[in-house]
Amino acid sequence: MNSADGNRLEIQGVLVWLVSKEDLIISKLFWARDSHSELQLRDVRNLLASGYDVEYLERWTRKLELDSLLQECLE
């Protein structure tokens, strides 16, 4: 596995893009913001259960006005 620039990696000749767990959580919260999708919120709860960067997630969910939805998933 060779690291390329940013979040791109080449694995066995295939170029793949990676996203951090925290950014995936933020994306799922953003998708669920209007629909309140139980699928997205369940995914967020499962991701949160295995640990995350609290400071980063809190900062960005506040900035994107997703913090109340994050709190709902943490309860």
Describe what you observe in this structure.
This protein is α+β, with helices and mostly antiparallel strands. It has one domain (19-74). The chain is built from four helices and three strands, in the order βββαααα. The chain has helices at 21-35, 38-49, 54-63, 67-74, and strands at residues 2-3, 8-11, 14-17. A three-stranded antiparallel β-sheet has the order 1-2-3, with no helix packed on it. A hairpin with a 4-residue loop joins strand 1 and strand 2 (8-11). Helix 1 runs antiparallel to helix 2 (38-49) and helix 1 packs parallel to helix 3. It is elongated. The model is unreliable at 1-5 (pLDDT under 50).
Give the strand line-up of the largest sheet: 1-2-3
What string gives the helices and strands in order?
Answer: EEEHHHH
**Mean pLDDT over the full residue set:** 90
Number of domains: 1
Anisotropy-based shape: elongated
Largest sheet: 3 strands, antiparallel
- Tally of individual helices: 4
